[in-house]
Amino acid sequence: MSEAPHLVGVEPDDRTAFPSDLLSDFPSDPLSHSRSAHADPRAETDRRLAELRDARVVVTGGGGLVGSRLTALLCRAGAAVTVLDRMDAYPEAAHTLFGVDRLGADLVVDDVCERDVVRRLLGGADYVVHLAACADVAACTRRPGEAFRSNLQGTQVVLEETAASRVRRLVFASSAAVYGDGRPGAEGPQEFHEDQPLRPLSVYANSKLWAEHQTRLLLGGPGGPEHAVLRYFSVYGAPQVPKPGSHSWMVAWLSMQARLGRPMRLNGGGVQVRDLVHVDDVAAATALALVEERMAGRTVNVGTGTPTSVREVAGLVAAHFPEARCITGDRPEGDPLGGYAATDRSRELLRWTPRIGVREGVTQYVRWLAATPRALPSWLAESAA
Hints:
- Residues 57-303 form the NAD-dependent epimerase/dehydratase domain.
- The chain has 14 helices and 15 strands.
- The protein is of the alpha/beta class.
- It has a single domain, classed as NAD(P)-binding Rossmann-like Domain (Rossmann fold), CATH 3.40.50.
- Helix 3 links the parallel strand 1 (56-60) and strand 2 (80-85).
- Helix 5 (115-122) runs parallel beside helix 7 (144-163) and helix 9 packs across helix 13 (358-371).
């Protein structure tokens, strides 16, 4: 493998040898500007999560990117956290990066489809966060049977056992994929509202929409556990790593390609729009959904409200690599043109706003990648040799 390209700093007006149109007119980070005008948001989040001290929280799928960051946040709040995860979604090296086994939580390596295991864990739980899923559009398309087992059967088991328990509230992690391409015939980036018609385009999106409906059906009655549904937009941030054959995790993919000196591949020309929301912000939103009274029975977007095209993200990555270049490819099956989150509900019901803007977040990721060479998957590095 050739030596990794030199990493450079990025300034707001940096223009590298990468085509300048990818960076021209890219907005500065409104989130970063607004953050400086307010009190420390982390301290405010910690204050609101204080009621979770000594609460027993089960996090399914807690060994992954969002789950590990959420688990760290809950442990910091003083909760007694149990993680249920098969720990096979990534190669072992990736799970080592996530480090859920080093956070102070109890780690149960098992399957949400195993009813006896789920029943035992939920029997003493106060809260549940259900993250466990085959969370990859391409993998679900290739292996719909696995998607059915994990995303439908596993969710059904968790919901039934939650309904039969003394759990106070379950938070279900859904996806902006349920919106598909949004309103037919609309031009330009679309703002996705929680109440608009849903038009999923993939096996993965279909599975998430079904799970949303089932959550409301099984946990929507009086006297039982409460529920809240969060629709995550495009989650990114260290220590995210891509999977073979996936077209998700755009920031990680593009950064690693540039780091290895390979052209950044822009599927569909990179015109797709994403609302990139940092994993630390997603973890905070998810934890707050456990305790915020107004979230009971509600569905809320978790995004920044800022649209960013794949091509623009490539430009932000390229600002760190003087020799970066790109190629284009076909748009994959099930890959939506996308849109961005309407954020009224997240501000009003969840009382949450994201802290980390996309420019800052991409810079953090590229620098983390430079400092963590073991994060480069061996299969990706070998393919570039």
